[in-house]
Design a protein that fits this description.
Largest sheet: none
Low-confidence stretches: 1-6, 344-350
Structural class: mainly alpha
Number of strands: 0
Order of helices and strands: HHHHHHHHHHHHHH
Shape: globular
């Protein structure tokens, strides 16, 4: 198949699917910062760092290693296929420690989307320090706003200084504005429901910001501000839009019906596997000429194959790893409570 060229509106829309990784970072910031915000506001102790790290490792590492092994098996003999970029064998250990972003020979090779996991893993290591700082600032929600705002400003400064030069644009500081947008929403909205009308306005504004971001990066930015957009702001408008959408869904008094739609929930459940496997499977299918020539049939084939593999990854590896981590990091009091519950339940069934 020839390299993609953008000739129609659907081509541009599909290209802006790249903003999914911005949503990924925003959601990570929002979900993972909330426990520290809640602890600071309530005067609690905050998350235990060991439990936090064990659960994070269990969530991303096993499925990631499986996808790396699968990518090697699927693509190592496919050199020369359009889109396939293989690292030297000596660079493979970099992938094991999420360091592929810092080697020109490994960056965007093998399973290209995994460059985002290098940033995500770095964020996991930094977040406990940010959370501790937030708790020391006091119990006011406005105190919890300071760390994400500082992260956003730091990221913008980093982008302004480094521009789009690699590997600086693939390092954690470049993505801090996206994580910060999600964290900011966690700090501002935690425990405070919003009215339905406000939720609708947030949805509209959020979608508008995401569309605007896509338009700006598809060549519609005025020449005078294009360097600011591409070099400094990057996808911050989309991050702000996604944060507004998250707030509308999470804090709205009337939850959006589409957020509970069963197929969407199911796809969200296996989304990590979909993200890890979609490109290696696409490239593998292309290497053996198994893809239809037209876009929609090819999309159906890739999506169906990816969903099957991601589902197997979820049930066979991801869910067991998550349950194991939850079990081994449970507080002793919680373990005792669960053991005490079992005889009572057994007696009830008897």
């Amino acid at each position: 198949m020839p390299h993609a060229t953008f000739r129609s509106a659907p081509d541009y829309v599909l290209n802006e699917g790249r903003l999914g990784l911005v949503l990924f970072f925003v959601l990570s910031g929002y979900l993972l910062y909330r426990p520290w915000v809640s602890a600071a506001v309530s005067g609690g102790a905050g998350p235990r760092h060991t439990a936090y790290l064990v659960r994070r490792v269990a969530r991303i590492v096993p499925a990631y290693y499986l996808a790396l092994i699968g990518s090697v098996a699927l693509l190592w003999g496919a050199a020369g296929t359009p889109g396939v970029r293989l690292p030297p064998a000596t660079a493979l250990p970099l992938f094991a420690v999420f360091a592929q972003n810092y080697s020109p020979s490994a960056l965007l090779s093998l399973d290209p989307p995994t460059w985002t996991l290098s940033i995500e893993a770095s964020f996991y290591l930094v977040l406990p320090l940010v959370g501790l700082a937030a708790m020391r600032l006091g119990s006011s929600r406005w105190s919890q706003v300071a760390p994400p705002v500082a992260m956003i400003l730091t990221g913008l400064a980093w982008n302004s200084i480094t521009g789009l030069a690699e590997p600086f644009d693939k390092a954690l500081p470049a993505a801090l504005p996206y994580f910060g947008a999600g964290m900011l929403m966690a700090a501002l909205g935690s425990g405070r429901p919003i009215a339905p009308r406000t939720g609708r306005w947030l949805l509209v504004a959020g979608i508008g910001a995401v569309v605007l971001d896509g338009a700006l990066h598809e060549g519609l930015a005025p020449a005078a501000v294009e360097p600011l957009v591409s070099g400094t702001l990057r996808d911050l408008p989309a991050a702000a839009g996604f944060a507004a959408i998250v707030a509308a869904v999470a804090y709205g008094e009337t939850r959006a019906a589409w957020a509970s739609w069963t197929p969407l929930v199911a796809l969200g459940t296996i989304s990590y596997g979909v993200y890890l496997w979609h490109l290696p499977l696409l490239l593998a299918l292309r290497s053996v000429n198994a893809l239809p020539l037209h876009l929609l049939p090819a999309l159906v084939v890739v999506l169906a194959t990816t969903v099957m593999v991601a589902t197997a990854s979820w049930f066979g590896l991801e869910r067991p790893a998550i349950r194991w981590a939850s079990r081994v990091t449970r507080r002793p009091a919680e373990r005792g409570e669960r053991r005490a519950r079992r005889p009572a339940l057994a007696g009830t069934r008897a």
